[in-house]
Records
---
Amino acid sequence: MTYETLSVSVDDRVALITLDRPDQLNAMNAAFWNELPAAVRALDADGGVRAIVINANGKHFTAGLDLGMFGAPPDPADRTARVQKAARFRQHTALMQQSFSALEECRVPVIAAVHGGCIGGGVDLISACDLRYASADAFLTIYEVNVGLTADVGTFPRLCKLLPEGIVRELAYTGRRMGAEEAEYRGLFNAVLDGREATLGKAMEVAREIAGKSPLAVHGCKRMITYARDHNTADALDYVVTWNAGMLHVEEVQAAIEAGKQGGEGDFTPLPPLAGEVKGGV
């Protein structure tokens, strides 16, 4: 499938999504909010992809929301437009939130390779990823406060679980830049590399390592970690036992053990393709 705002390639079970509006600093226009989740869901539905890496072309990872998406205020004389304004805003914002939730809901790990600026909506994006690697020149900023907005597409629910609350509050209230070194120190970035190519190389290396593990086991890990983050310990313990009661298969365990002995790749079963419609023979 061809996209307007990004490109997608798959090599040896690892997918690479590249934000590709470099002349616009990869600002997130209307097409982006539809295309990113469509690409992620298509890759997930295939069943053959075991990890996804998101990177970007150009000077910056992303400048965030394309301000061109803000339309003119409704005509004061247009009652329908005035009454529907809040409802339309809520509906559109919910759809944008789902664009990044698709990264979290995807069955396979999603890895961000960040360089340059990761601004506004970019913070929402990387917060929904599983792992984050960055180049030394990378920085992030919750920029919305600088243009009179409150970040609302996912920054706070997720970033508050990745950084200390006081740091999130400082970033949100001031709009200041957090550099790559500080972000790594705070635990947001898994590692900082010398440049963009090294950053992408590291992200792809980790993705390929993940792709060599049991897809079902990795899927279970992702589900359990996210669930444990959002629930209490007792509920998380109960869920992981229930999950393994149905999802743990001795064949996958044996394949992993054999791979460890031989030092090669395990003969793992891929995840099933996601069904697009209800069919018989489940």
---
Amino acid sequence: MLLVLGRRLGGAVPVLLALVLVVFILQKISPVDPVAALVGAKASPAVYAAARHQLGLDKPVPVQFFDYVGRALSGNLGDSSVTRTPVAQDLRNYLPVTLELIVAAFFLIVVIGFFLGIATAQGWRGSGVLKFIMVAGASVPVFLACLLGMLVFFRWLNLLPITGQTSSYNAPTGPTGFLAIDSWIAGRPGLFVDDIRHLILPALCVAITPAVAVGRVLRSSLEGVMRSDYMRTARAKGLSERTVLVRHGLRNALGPVLALMGLQLAGLIGSSIVVEMIFARPGIGLYIAQAITAGDFNTIAGVTLVVGLLYVVANVVVDMLQAIADPRVAM
């Protein structure tokens, strides 16, 4: 297991360095002038030159790249021209909101995807309707799911809120930054319930398409596994169908599902940013939208690097889960 972890982490380092290089190149070819964004377009030549020297843009390009890598490794991603604060500090404020959404969406993906996959593979009552839902769900784009969710759960049923992270004006901002956790630490279970109510609809919109994909792959994998010889042997021993499914079927069918989850993570992170903009959640989605409008490349680069790091870490975790489910992966 440690060998698998070492190989995955070793492979992640070049990926992250390549991502830093791409972000640095984009910064150089971008038409946005970072100096003008910092001091203003009407700054005097002396002020402009001083800011250019302060940012290190008067150095040779290779030196600028190595300086950029060093600053990124130390957590210095520059200052945001929108908030006038360090990008790393802004990310510490905005990122927990996005991570909370991603975790909730991933939980729904596992619950909904496994339910759809097992129910349709086992031919439970109503599985025909579930198969139709799986086909329809795979065709719904994220923004349309958001609009339909708002129409049904807010406009018609008036069950769920559709804007912000909470209705409270004095929500705690620490110590973890995750409101679901901080509300319990502060002894405010009502705030926790309010946070979950604000989280359900965005998480569901993010999770629908990946959950359907997981369900379809799990169904195909389970149908193949349940027809195998060792499954017939397990039934011949007198084991119940539920025991055969849980102890033998699911574990052997998880390989393709976990591989798909790794591929879905990139879309999951990207979709969460779009959903945050639609539901006005104060995460990195709104943060980067403001940065793009203002041409704040430090913020754009910082968010890109953090999202890339999240994607790499998530894929390492998925690879480890694959190795646990199927020890042959570790060989």
